[in-house]
Design a protein that fits this description.
The structure holds two protein chains of two kinds.
Chain A lengths: L8 E2 L2 E4 L3 E5 L8 E4 L2 E9 L2 E6 L12 E3 L5 E4 L7 E2 L15 E4 L22 H4 L9 E6 L5 H11 L4 E9 L1 H13 L6 E7 L10 H15 L3 E7 L1 H14 L13 H9 L3 E2 L5 E9 L8 H9 L2 E8 L4 E4 L5 E2 L14 H23 L6 H18 L7 H15 L2 H4 L3 H7 L6
Parallel strand pairs in A: 9-13, 11-16, 11-17, 12-13, 12-14, 14-16
Antiparallel strand pairs in A: 1-7, 2-3, 3-6, 4-5, 4-7, 5-6, 8-10, 15-16, 17-18, 17-19
Helix pairs in contact in A: 2-3, 6-7, 8-9, 8-10, 9-10
Chain B lengths: L2 E8 L2 E6 L8 E6 L2 E11 L2 E6 L11 E4 L5 E4 L7 E2 L29 E5 L6 E2 L4 E7 L2 E6 L8 E6 L3 E3 L6 E4 L5 E4 L3 E4 L16 E2 L4 H6 L2 E2 L3 E5 L6 H11 L4 E7 L3 H10 L16 E6 L6 H18 L4 E7 L1 H14 L13 H9 L3 E4 L5 E10 L9 H9 L2 E2 L4 H5 L12 E2 L5 H10 L4 H25 L6 H18 L13 H16 L7 H20 L5 H17 L2
Helix pairs in contact in B: 4-5, 6-7, 10-11, 11-12, 11-13, 13-14
The chains are: A alpha/beta, B alpha+beta.
């Protein structure tokens, strides 16, 4: 064994970019942490004894004779129950004025769960929002992002979902949060009296962007502690993953890597999957559910970030302003929860999936009618009924300000069907029509 | 043995300074503080070898030692492969203790203790060559042939074969004498390098029959041949995985190998949670007994993603050599292509389109070419049918992986965002999708006998109605409901009838999910009969209301057990409805 590297201090940098520095050093391990002029950095490349370090806080004002010392270990987090109720920065240092957390020091960004040791996610997480519970039911152990334009109230919705969800711990990872949004989350958690079950790791827009790269790993290390060691149900909130991916592209760009689509690194899929795949239902009862936010550029889901995300996550929740009802709704066409069939009709009422499909299909018919209307064509009676139905469906079910139980959502849907349509027009299986079609309707 | 030391690390690409000869694709172990990390040579330049590491390289240092193994990545083939869950390098995931995957933990793919009931097939004195059958054990319900290892060259004479009895896989079950008089022992297992196609068969003719899947839009509209190739491209959320699972559950094959390649772990969990419970509709046995899962989920090491599809293909080829029908499903080949891209990128190669390596197209077609129906040396037939999914970036089919795959695969099942948005599942576009096999005279003959004379013409006719309906819909959208003759509405609704009552299928309904050929023929005949009628309507609203009623009844039929009382009563309602209007 070579002598312990972290005892030696280097003082000659070979090159400096905005995000990285390179220097000659020996005995350095891949992924190891170092400090460069007091700033935390991580080894991302070695070539012979030329080592490239990614400096999280950026390299502004770092001189070529900056002191570099290697710490001999990859990034770690001290985990214990003391994490609960605390706010940390991307390095896991308290930003709430409280003391340092004491506990076992664990490497972050650790190995994946053996897929064979996983269990099938099958526990419903009700949120009270019908656009989610009725049409896109979320299950514990699932990973699902909100796709939203920057002007949508995604952080508010996410906070609502978190506060209503029946979980043991909520872990917030804020990446590039505005200070206002950070304070919003803080206030929401405090006023709900839920602070003792919340842990937050926050990188705000005031912090250097590359620091964000540490946030998901920190959050998930804490989540794994509670889910694996303590068998708790953990809900992880990650906002905003688009800003995380932007930070990835900054680093890869500075390392002269050939960009792939939308100037994102070629490894974007793997980089995002490493985070999202930490969502898990464990055999011991603990689970990690991830709800994230991916902001879009004018609804464009073909951009590399939402596109790769969509292939990794188990569905997506698409926020959209609906001009007919004047509400922000969860778009039933573009949204999807891939795990919904694990709970629908099994943990919920038997008519759930058929009601959901009929509701969305009729809403699609309304969109066709609307196109016709916009093109100046005459509308049929069915078209007009569809349009009326659509407004009420959006207001009473799709809107994000709805907060009711799933049975009420189903009953509401049946009422709307009976109000606007005949049983045959819904296409629902006859046995369910016989049982649930409102009797007071004609 | 060649050794070396680490001189460069970027993520999972490591550069090694070697002290002797190394081969392309040779394996090596990199020693990280006593843990051996498996890696594969992907480029050699002078005495420097670039290797892709199948594990995380965290903690690896400049100067760490490397030992080359003198062999390529191999799989172990033998009884016990079915029902297993492997990672991309064929480590048995079920025998690992920890919840988390441990770096450098390599487990045995096969059980060395379990006894298998062996029956000899060959006799002393028989002349044999690679892939000839020496004996047989029963694996689940399948006769698993013990073969002359694929790597044996030339002709051998059987000297002795073990008598009937129960043995473990390491038992020498035959001794063969080579042409130059050497004795070679054969056990129940053999090894084969995954990147090399197994060619131990007599010939590879064109496929001449259909593999049924119970999915109407495939079996009737775009059938895949036994030993054929197909691919399913589609944006996320269009039901690629649901469709693939349906094919896996219902596909008419003896052996299914599912390669979860860079996809979600929960999807794999779904397979090994549900499959042991589910019954194979063709044999009545548990699905898991005929299934092998190769799983390299998206968070597992990227380099092993590529290995996973090759491992899966090699296992299929092994069972094909036993005269069995194998089905390989790979979800998703785009992730494999992306893994190639990541490595090519780190090696700073000049990129092709979308930064993919320039030889992407040839890599994909070589892989698809390994599927096929073969005639074995003993005249029996075996088949590997391959269906891969493709995840086109942004749902745009004009991207390198989709384009390369389209050149290689014979069936194209295009999943469409628009159909998925309307919840028209399976979202296979009925007009763009195709099966080249419908043009094979062998297949047309086969369907003539299997279903009915002229079946393919009937399908072409049905496709025509759908296509015409689409054109009518466009016209109606442009000119308005009142701006077109009533016949346009009728033609449109006839295509909707085929769409709703035949092409759409509920994968989550116990009855509707599986539609045997007989039932498909019954329903299509019924629907085409309706389409043959001319109807009278006063206005287009009456037309749509009438057809919606018809669609509703047909859908209820799809949800009912074939030809039972409920089914027939819906059939009666339909007849009545037709009589009310049609002539």
């Amino acid at each position: 064994m070579a002598t312990k590297a972290f005892q030696k201090i280097y003082t000659k940098l070979e090159s400096i970019t905005k995000a990285t520095v390179s220097l000659h050093a020996t005995g350095v391990a891949n992924d190891e942490l170092a400090t460069v002029a007091g700033r935390l950095a991580q080894v991302v490349k070695t070539k012979g004894d030329l080592v490239t370090l990614q400096v999280f806080a950026g390299t502004e004002n770092i001189p070529t004779d900056a002191e570099v010392s290697f710490l001999g270990a990859p990034p770690t987090l001290k985990v214990s129950d003391q994490l609960a109720g605390r706010f940390f920065n991307a390095y896991g240092k308290p930003i709430d004025g409280g003391p340092e957390v004491e506990g076992e020091e664990r490497e972050v960004g650790g190995p994946s769960v053996n897929p064979y040791k996983r269990r099938q996610p099958s526990e419903l997480i009700p949120t009270g929002i019908a656009g989610i519970d009725l049409n896109n039911t979320i299950v514990s152990g699932q990973k699902i992002p909100f796709f939203a334009d920057p002007d949508q109230p995604y952080n508010q919705v996410m906070a609502d979902v978190a506060m209503r969800a029946d979980v043991d711990k909520i872990i917030l990872g804020g990446m590039g949060l505005t200070n206002d949004d950070y304070l919003f989350f803080r206030h929401a958690f405090e006023s709900a009296g839920a602070l003792d079950r919340i842990v937050s790791f926050v990188n705000t827009t005031e912090d250097p962007p590359v620091e964000r790269l540490l946030v998901p790993d920190m959050v998930l290390a804490a989540a794994e502690y509670f889910a694996v060691d303590k068998n708790e149900k953990v809900l992880v909130l990650l906002t905003d993953m688009t800003l995380y991916a932007d930070a990835l592209s900054i680093v890869s760009n500075r390392m002269d890597q050939i960009p792939s689509k939308d100037s994102m690194p070629g490894s974007l899929y793997s980089d995002l999957a490493k985070i999202y795949e930490k969502a898990v239902q464990l055999p011991t009862g603990g689970s990690i559910t991830i709800i994230a936010v991916t902001t879009l550029n004018d609804g464009d889901i073909t951009h590399a970030i939402p596109d790769n995300t969509g292939y990794i996550t188990e569905g997506q929740l698409f926020l959209r302003a609906d001009s007919d009802s004047g509400k922000v709704i969860i778009d039933p066409f573009r949204s999807l929860s891939r795990l919904k069939q694990n709970v629908q009709n099994k943990k919920t009422r038997e008519d759930h999936s058929q009601v959901m499909n009929a509701g969305v299909r009729l809403y699609a018919d309304a969109q066709n009618a609307k196109t016709k209307q916009e093109n100046g064509f005459d509308l049929s009676d069915y078209d007009r009924r569809c349009l009326d139905y659509a407004v009420e469906y959006a207001t009473r079910l799709l809107s994000i300000d709805v907060n009711i139980r799933i049975e009420e959502m189903l009953d509401t849907a049946w009422q709307l069907f009976a109000k606007y349509f005949s049983p045959a027009e819904t296409g629902i299986r006859q046995t369910l029509i016989d049982k649930y079609w409102p009797k007071n309707a004609d | 043995m060649t050794t070396g030391k680490v001189i460069g690390i970027v993520s999972n690409l490591v550069t090694v300074l070697t002290d002797g000869p190394v081969a392309e694709n040779e394996l090596c172990y990199i020693n990280l503080k006593g843990t051996n990390l498996l890696a594969e040579v992907i480029k050699v330049n002078g005495d420097k070898a670039s290797v892709q590491v199948f594990e995380s390289t965290r903690g690896l240092r400049d100067g760490d030692s490397v030992t080359f193994l003198g062999k390529m990545l191999e799989v172990t083939l033998g009884p016990g492969l079915l029902g297993s869950v492997y990672d991309g390098l064929q480590n048995d995931l079920t025998t690992m203790k920890d919840i988390f995957l441990k770096r450098g933990e390599y487990t045995n793919p096969l059980d060395h203790v379990k006894l298998w009931p062996f029956k000899p097939v060959a006799k002393p004195g028989d002349k044999v060559m690679a892939a000839d059958w020496l004996g047989e054990v029963t694996e689940g319900w399948l006769p698993h042939k013990i073969m002359v290892p694929f790597s044996f060259k030339g002709e051998y004479t059987v000297k002795s074969v073990a008598p009937e009895g129960e043995y473990n896989i390491d038992k020498v079950i035959a001794v063969l004498e080579s042409e130059n008089g050497e004795d070679v022992e054969v056990t129940m297992t053999q090894k084969w390098p995954v990147k090399v196609a197994v060619r131990a068969y007599r010939e590879k003719p064109r496929p001449d029959r259909i593999m049924e899947t119970g999915v109407r839009v495939i079996d009737s509209f775009n059938p895949i041949a036994e030993g054929g190739t197909g691919f399913i491209p589609g944006p996320f959320g269009c039901g690629k995985t649901v469709l693939q699972h349906a094919i896996a559950k219902q596909g008419e094959a003896d052996v299914i190998v599912m390669a979860a390649c860079g996809e979600r772990a929960n999807e794999v969990v779904e397979i090994f949670t549900e499959f042991p419970e589910l019954i194979d509709p063709h044999t009545g046995r548990h699905l898991m007994e005929r299934t092998t899962i190769i799983c390299n989920t998206s968070n597992m090491p990227v380099a092993a993603r590529e290995a996973s599809v090759y491992t899966a293909m090699t296992i299929c080829e092994y069972y094909r050599a036993m005269g069995l029908r194998c089905l390989l499903l790979a979800d998703s080949t785009s992730r494999w292509a992306q893994a190639l891209r990541e490595m090519s990128n780190r090696m700073e190669e000049l990129p092709g389109a979308d930064a993919f390596p320039v030889d992407l197209s040839s890599i994909i077609s070589n892989f698809y070419a390994r599927a096929g129906m073969v005639i074995l040396n003993n005249g029996q037939r075996g088949a590997v049918t391959f269906i891969g999914t493709v995840s086109p970036a942004g749902g745009n089919l004009k991207e390198p992986v989709t384009e390369s795959t389209k050149k290689a695969a014979r069936c194209f099942y295009s999943l469409e965002q628009n159909r998925a948005d309307q919840k028209r599942y399976p979202a296979v576009n009925p007009i763009d999708s195709y099966s080249k096999y419908l043009e094979y005279p062998e297949i047309v003959d086969y369907l003539d006998k299997k279903v009915e004379k002229g079946w393919v013409d009937k399908i072409i006719h049905a496709k025509m109605i759908v296509r015409r309906g689409k054109e009518m819909a466009d016209q109606i959208n442009i000119l308005g409901d009142d701006g077109v003759p009533m016949s346009y509405h009728e033609a449109f609704w006839k295509s909707e009838l085929i769409d709703f009552a035949f092409l759409q299928q509920d994968a989550f309904d116990d009855i509707d999910s599986l539609s045997p050929m007989e039932r498909q023929k019954y329903m299509l005949d019924l629907i085409l009969d309706i389409c043959g009628h001319h109807f009278e309507f006063d206005n287009y609203e009456e037309c749509s209301a009438y057809f919606k009623k018809m669609i509703n009844i047909l859908r209820q039929m799809n949800y009912s057990t074939f030809e039972d009382g409920q089914f027939n009563s819906y059939r009666g309602q339909l007849t009545k409805l037709i009589q009310e209007n049609g002539n």
